[in-house]
């Protein structure tokens, strides 16, 4: 049985994701699709609009065979660590290929870029370091350094977030010498309209913006979302009273930052170079999250970088707890959220070959990262009343879901 | 100019407090009354129904000349530490007497009890230790130990909370050999009805229970509250949307306890003997604060003791930050909340004699306890929207209030 791996957030699952998934299955010739998804918090340091279980359910019902979770400690990180967490998990489950979306749809530029980087590694790092010292953000400094070693405009455009992620996936596969074929599917442009089936591709960001600002799923948004997603989003909100967004967590951030000492804040992953003082000095000056972000962002600290740090403050994730993520070279465990019958067959086949634990329920004591996972769940659910909180957190301790 | 000191919580200020204040002034022959009040959190480990500034304002408008604040680190403590924080501050401001309410109205039993305790100190401590080892709570063990050394039913009844506090005040004055005369006024019984002026004395606890459970100030409650208090309570609630009670902070406790490690919880003042595990195991089993308290209380840990610990969790107050409170033997500072003209004259007169700083605004760096004070303010205000939070916390950095 052949499997292809997809690295996803599905926040929420839309027609672009469906297209990517169907194309990947066809191109890879896989029998089984394994989507590894960020959990309740996303790579850009944001709470997912609905929780991981509901997003996994939509994926299974849309035809994905297995949904895994990227461990929180890897998910809310820069593209290289995010890729590492995702790719190593997929490798542990023995996928044959990983298929990601890119602007161009051709894998050679990614592989070539990796080769170039290996040849010019020293030069790249020197240039990167120089630009960081100038006060540039990591993505900016990195873009300059790539340009310096010839990975500029002629190669893949590493200014495009999706290309950056794709490049990180490719690098991880090649660096760790994994038995996985990197593949890419050309993304359908945002705004692409398929006249025959009357829906269009829009980015998840623009869809979220639309529904969060309007407070309901507009006709415009419905045009880009499969009915499964629309129903799941509406049902979620009917039960919980709201979707998740940073604004709802702002009071908690205010509380947390004003009651932690600068020393305590300094222990949180990502709080460095005096950010703790900047946070404490400004936290009561803003009326909402958006306003506050505009007060604290700088050339050096991008919006995304800051959001990730704030997520770690919310989840109380300390640098020393997750130091090992940069040196680890195999998956700490594989966390299974849900599967179809086909998925179940594939897992039965692979299970005996696996070198790391397969986590089907959040048992304690298996790995310290699972304690952080539980805190991420509790932070994410903090906005709900106790009964909903209890029901939702209990889900973590139950067997994986079925479609 | 002679001053008498009152140790109060005014939560909220009622006719019983007015009676105590007028009687104290008369009995002591003082020109000036100094009330030292717990701040936003009270001795029993509860948020005050309205904030300290509004409570101070009512006191000044009711005729109190000076309102000081008991430092948080002393206020949310057992009766001996509470007394120490209050009495040493009053001493620093040079009061001639301290006048407290008691069931009996006579000071001799308190002074005699102190003498007895000095004579039988070893026996008392042995007995106390023995009963604590049996698993009794401190107040229970202490009551048994007093009984053992003859401070039983014939002497003052140390089972009565007000007598316990009065005894702690007396002990502090005598132990530190302060130049203060301890005095006591007989309390009017709860339910006491003064036919001529158509109001009655009720306990602050029963008044709070009435208005918090009903959600408004009932006619029953109005019968026990001066119009000043009724107006202040109503105005407060009109602006902020609610009065303060533990139930409103329960979501924060759930968040805090589930995202702190047992080791981190163990550093909080009062978390000992495995309470951290008990808290973590039960925090999601209850639907509200009341239910949760019933799950965690034991023979050893009284409701009050637990509430104080939970307040320290809310304010992130660690044992090592406040170790010095048991050995300190003078006021770290005197915090002034408000004063009348008479109060201002008294302070001008006393200021040059003072051995510790007089804090009129919450400046940082003067004393580490003031950082904790600021955290207590931010925790207390955490339930409000950012605009109200900002306005209310700014009050801390402004000059004292006038009537």
From TrEMBL, chains A, B:
UniProt name for this protein: tRNA(Met) cytidine acetate ligase
Gene encoding the protein: tmcAL
GO biological process: tRNA modification
A GO molecular function held by the record: tRNA binding
Annotated binding of ATP, by residue: 7-20, 101, 162, 187
Subcellular location: Cytoplasm
Entry keywords, A to Z: ATP-binding, Cytoplasm, Ligase, Nucleotide-binding, RNA-binding, tRNA processing, tRNA-binding
Reactions catalysed according to its record: cytidine(34) in elongator tRNA(Met) + acetate + ATP = N(4)-acetylcytidine(34) in elongator tRNA(Met) + AMP + diphosphate
EC number: 6.3.4.-
Family: Belongs to the TmcAL family.
Highest taxon above the source species: Bacteria
Pfam families: HIGH_NTase1
Enzyme class, UniProt record, top EC level: ligase
GO cellular component: cytoplasm
InterPro entries: Rossmann-like_a/b/a_fold, tRNA(Met)_cyd_acetate_ligase
HAMAP family on file: TmcAL
């Amino acid at each position: 049985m052949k499997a292809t791996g997809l690295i996803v957030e599905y926040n929420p699952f839309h027609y672009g994701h469906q297209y990517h998934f169907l194309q990947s299955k066809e191109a890879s010739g896989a029998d089984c699709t394994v989507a590894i998804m960020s959990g309740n918090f996303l790579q850009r340091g944001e709470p997912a609009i609905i929780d991981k279980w509901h997003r996994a359910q939509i994926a299974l019902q849309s035809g994905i065979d297995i949904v895994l979770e990227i461990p929180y400690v890897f998910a809310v990180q820069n593209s290289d660590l995010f890729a590492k967490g995702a790719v190593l998990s997929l490798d542990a489950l023995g996928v044959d290929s990983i298929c990601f979306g890119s602007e161009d749809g051709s894998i050679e530029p990614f592989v070539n870029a990796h080769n170039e980087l290996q040849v010019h590694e020293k030069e790249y790092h020197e240039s990167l370091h120089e630009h960081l010292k100038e006060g540039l953000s990591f993505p900016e400094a990195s873009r300059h350094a790539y340009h310096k070693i010839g990975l500029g405009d002629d190669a893949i455009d590493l200014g495009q977030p999706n290309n950056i992620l794709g490049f990180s996936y490719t690098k991880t596969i090649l660096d760790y010498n994994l038995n996985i074929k990197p593949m890419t599917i050309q993304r359908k442009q945002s705004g692409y309209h398929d006249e025959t089936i009357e829906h269009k591709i829009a980015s998840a960001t623009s869809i979220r913006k639309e529904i969060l600002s309007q407070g309901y799923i507009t006709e415009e948004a419905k045009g880009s979302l499969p009915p499964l997603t629309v129903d799941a989003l509406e049902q979620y909100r009917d039960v919980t009273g709201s979707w998740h967004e940073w604004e709802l967590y702002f009071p908690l951030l205010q509380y947390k930052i004003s009651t932690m000492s600068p020393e305590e804040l300094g222990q949180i992953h990502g709080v460095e170079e005096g950010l703790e003082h900047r946070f404490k000095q400004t936290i009561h000056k803003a009326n909402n999250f958006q306003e506050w972000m505009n007060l604290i962002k700088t050339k050096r600290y991008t919006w995304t970088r800051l959001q990730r740090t704030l997520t770690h403050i919310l989840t109380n994730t300390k640098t020393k707890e997750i130091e090992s993520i940069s040196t680890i070279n195999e998956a700490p465990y594989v966390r299974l959220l849900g599967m179809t019958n086909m998925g179940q067959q594939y897992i039965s086949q692979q299970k005996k070959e696996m070198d790391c634990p397969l986590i089907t329920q959040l048992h304690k004591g298996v790995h310290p990262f699972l304690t952080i996972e539980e805190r991420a769940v509790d932070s994410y659910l903090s906005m709900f009343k106790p009964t909903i909180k209890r029901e939702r957190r209990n889900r973590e301790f139950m067997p994986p879901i079925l479609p």
